[in-house]
Design goal:
alpha+beta; Jelly Rolls; 2 domains; two-stranded antiparallel sheet; elongated
């Protein structure tokens, strides 16, 4: 493997490094690159923005001081403002998505990733999460290039989505298993379906006992309790905001039997659906 010193020498002219173009970023600049072995970027002062780089194929390398960090598919790197940019292809090619961005204040917690080297933060994503991040970054690029009104804000929202997906895999924030995420998303899309534990286990490709253990470990409740909480939460919203009959609301949130719905609602909320509606409007 090439040493960090060799890498520095390969991308220098004499003893002078070649400075790369530094983008002037309003809020977001995002894009996609597929580059060969010669690709390299060097910015001695870094940038004033954050830079996120997701490797889609091939491999890249980052030189930080005397350290050398190699990144491959499904990894996402984050360079802090002011960190020297010294990165390029590792071996024959590097396909990547990138986003330069100035974060909103509420994003700062989403940027607290494990540090691979000073100023360089790194996450390894599962293939499923990597696809979601790639889709969000592709959306950011399309928005910022679109020319529509508020294009930068559309792009910033897409970058925030990418960061939120990355955050689900941040070990410092309690990394969530892909299979649990898949079950949570399935529940959200099919809340009125029967949703037995066997159905949910099939979504996760796990046994019912293994799903129950993993779900409780990561979410803090059983899958059945989670489904009920989501259904009752939706029912409360409909009771608050509509005049629909309680039987209709029961069916809409997945309880075809209104009496059973009322029993589950009372157990969780402490009031019957009709008493809850009367109190919320009192």
């Amino acid at each position: 493997m090439e040493s960090a010193a060799d890498f520095m020498e390969d991308h220098a002219v004499g003893t002078t490094r070649i400075e790369s173009y530094t983008p002037q970023v309003e809020a977001v600049e995002a894009g996609h690159l597929t580059e060969g072995a010669e690709y390299a970027t060097y910015r001695s002062g870094g940038t004033t923005d954050w830079l996120l780089i997701q490797t889609l194929a091939g491999a890249g390398r980052f030189g930080i001081d005397t350290a050398e960090v190699i990144v491959g598919p499904d990894s996402v790197a984050l360079l802090r403002p002011g960190t020297v940019h010294d990165y390029g292809s590792h071996h024959d090619h590097w396909e990547l998505r990138f986003a330069h961005f100035h974060p909103r204040a509420e994003w700062l917690a989403l940027l607290d990733w494990p540090e691979a080297a000073p100023g360089l933060r790194l996450l390894d994503l599962s293939p499923a999460l990597s696809l979601r991040v790639a889709d969000a970054l592709a959306l950011a690029a399309r928005h910022t290039m679109s020319g529509v009104a508020r294009a930068q804000l559309f792009g910033a929202n897409a970058v925030e989505l990418a960061l939120l997906w990355c955050d689900t895999q941040n070990p410092g924030e309690g990394e969530m298993d892909d299979r649990v995420l898949a079950v949570i998303e399935h529940i959200g899309r099919h809340l009125t379906d029967p949703l037995s534990i066997a159905d949910l286990a099939a979504v996760a490709n796990l046994s019912t006992s293994r799903l129950g253990h993993l779900f409780a470990e990561q979410v803090g409740s059983s899958p059945q309790q989670f489904v009920q909480a989501r259904r009752i939460g939706l029912a409360k919203q409909l009771l608050d905001l509509t005049n629909r009959p309680i039987a209709d609301i029961a069916a809409e949130v997945g309880y075809p039997d209104p009496l059973y719905f009322s029993t589950r609602f009372r157990r969780q909320v402490g009031l019957s659906p009709s008493a809850y509606r009367a109190r919320s409007r009192g």
